[in-house]
Design goal:
By secondary structure, the protein is of the alpha/beta class. 34% of the residues lie in helices and 25% in strands. It has helices spanning 12-24, 63-71, 104-110, 117-131, 142-145, 151-166, 175-188, 202-205, 207-216, 271-281, 323-327, 341-345, 348-362, 417-436; strands at residues 4-8, 27-31, 43-46, 49-52, 79-82, 84-88, 92-96, 195-198, 220-222, 227-233, 236-241, 244-248, 250-253, 264-266, 285-294, 305-307, 319-322, 332-338, 371-382, 395-399, 402-405. Strands 9-2-1-13-21-20 form a 6-stranded mixed beta sheet. A 5-stranded antiparallel beta sheet has the order 16-17-18-15-19. The longest helix has 20 residues, at 417-436. Bound molecules: flavin-adenine dinucleotide. Keywords: Oxidoreductase.
């Protein structure tokens, strides 16, 4: 008889685990409390448009996610793979095209617009240090690490890059985590895929496709099914949700860290569970807000993704995405505003008016949006705070064949889709290894 595994949570981590377990030959049941798959990276239908709960960016360094994307079925949706075109509107532009082989970054920096030659030299010398593996000391913030860089480069490159990659402002972000992202995303990743933007919504990109494969292998995907409790009984695990109790040989628990307190977990030996809970207690969170503005369909941004971070004093918007160029939603602009108490406290109308005035001023001086909607995710990711104790492994084993997975557990990287996929994949592998013995 096939062993039966329950996966709780159908975000990227849970579905990745379920997909691999199903391929290993296990009977898999996925419990998801929401109606839509994808968790914090999911489809959101707004004003009859298929959008996301927040604009996401991927990169060529997302090996685990991209491997899955290719493997799940033979019909993957289109991905826009872009070279680095770091354009802070009217202030700074750095384009790195792969045409010059290993010298491409050097050529790109020499040609960068908005900075002087001495500033370029300082920028280059920092990047060369990175290339040669010059790692920051532990306990250093990103702000302290880049403090010798010219002010303009900090403002138009390091600051927005840190927020985009770590969703944490530079004054508190952990320089070592940032270093790993730079090493893998900027130095090692192929220049042709510095940025990747999906052309479909985030549920269609992978979660729906993984769920179809799991269902084809007789797995079950149960949506709108919130798990209330998990406990051990006679060498099995009992999963309790509003519709009853079921027994399993193994569990992968892949819910967001702040959702853990709503599940009652009872184990015969609680030591690992207590340690894990004390790790969760020290986590703090950062928000991400996305403002969608529908302009007339002939309104286009100069490129698919333009930086507006710091372009005017007290500007709120950080990045503007042209959904017309990404998903054929002509005239639809997504403005991302990450991490910030100021933003979280502003009422929607005030935030929208401010973002609208920024976009109108920079790009469409004669136009008015037809509609504006805001999606707020208050706990979008954990904070990559320099004071946070790093997790030591990207999967937590609570007891034999009970694993916890999720984006927040990666020991080196920030909480991203890639960290979620890596964690889910590893949870499946550990489960398989254990059940084989
Ligand atoms: C607005 C926004 C923008 C982002 N931008 C980026 C980006 O550009 N690039 C990037 O890589 N990452 C980005 N992220 C982060 C990325 O979305 C997350 O890292 C990733 O989605 C986390 O996946 P996960 O599976 O670990 O957790 P989750 O997605 O949180 O999945 C957990 C799932 O468990 C379910 N669940 C919870 N409790 C229960 C229960 N009791 N029973 C059953 N089910 C339950 C939840 O409904 C959810 O579906 C962004 C996140 C947000 C919110």
């Amino acid at each position: 008889m096939k062993k039966h595994i329950a996966v709780v949570g159908a975000g990227y981590a849970g579905l990745t685990a379920a997909y691999h377990l199903s391929n290993f030959g296990y009977q898999v049941t996925v419990y998801e409390s929401a109606r839509i798959l994808g968790g914090r990276a999911r489809r959101a239908v707004i004003n009859q448009q298929v959008l996301d709960n927040g604009q996401h960016i991927l990169s060529g360094a997302y090996h685990s996610l991209l491997k899955l994307y290719d493997a799940v079925d033979s019909n993957p949706p289109h991905l826009h793979k872009l070279t680095l075109d770091w354009w802070m509107w009217n202030r700074f532009r750095l384009t790195i095209k792969p045409n010059f082989g290993p010298l491409s970054p050097l050529v790109g920096i020499c040609r960068a617009k908005g900075i002087t030659f001495p500033e370029k030299l300082k920028f280059l010398s920092f990047l060369m240090g990175l290339q040669f593996g010059k790692k920051p000391k532990s306990g250093l913030t990103v702000a302290a690490w880049v403090s010798t860089q010219p002010a303009k480069i900090i403002r138009y490159f390091w600051e927005p890059l840190c927020v985009a990659a770590l969703n944490t402002p530079i004054f508190k972000a952990d320089a070592q985590v940032f270093y790993h992202v730079l090493r893998d995303g900027l130095i090692k990743a192929p220049l042709k895929e510095a940025l990747i933007l999906p052309s479909v919504d985030l549920t269609a990109l992978l979660p729906d496709r993984m769920a179809n494969t799991i269902a084809e292998q007789n797995g079950r995907i149960l949506t709108s099914r919130r798990v209330k409790a998990i406990y051990e009984s006679a060498k099995k695990f009992v999963v309790d949700d509003a519709q009853g109790r079921s027994e399993f040989d193994g569990i992968v628990l892949a819910i967001a860290p702040y959702q853990m307190k709503y599940i009652d977990i009872q184990l015969e030996n609680n030591q690992s569970l207590d340690e894990y809970r004390s790790y969760l207690n020290q986590l703090t969170y950062e928000s991400i807000t996305t403002v969608y503005l529908q302009y007339p369909s002939d309104c286009r941004l100069p490129i698919a993704m333009v930086g507006i971070h710091g372009c005017t004093e007290n500007a709120l918007g950080q990045w503007a995405f042209d959904r017309g160029q990404i998903t054929n939603q002509a005239g639809l602009i997504a403005v991302v505003v990450s991490t910030g108490d100021t933003v979280d406290q502003l009422p929607d109308e005030v935030l929208q008016a401010k973002v609208q005035s920024e976009i109108t001023q920079y790009f469409f001086p004669k136009q008015h949006p037809l509609w504006i909607k805001t999606v707020r995710e208050k706990r979008a990711t954990i904070s990559c705070d320099v004071h946070k104790v790093q997790s030591t492994s990207n999967v937590v084993s609570l007891t034999n064949s009970f694993y916890v997975a999720g984006d927040y557990l990666h020991p080196l990287y920030p909480a991203t889709l890639e960290s979620a996929c890596q964690s889910g994949e590893q949870a499946a592998q550990l489960m398989h290894k254990y059940l084989l013995t």
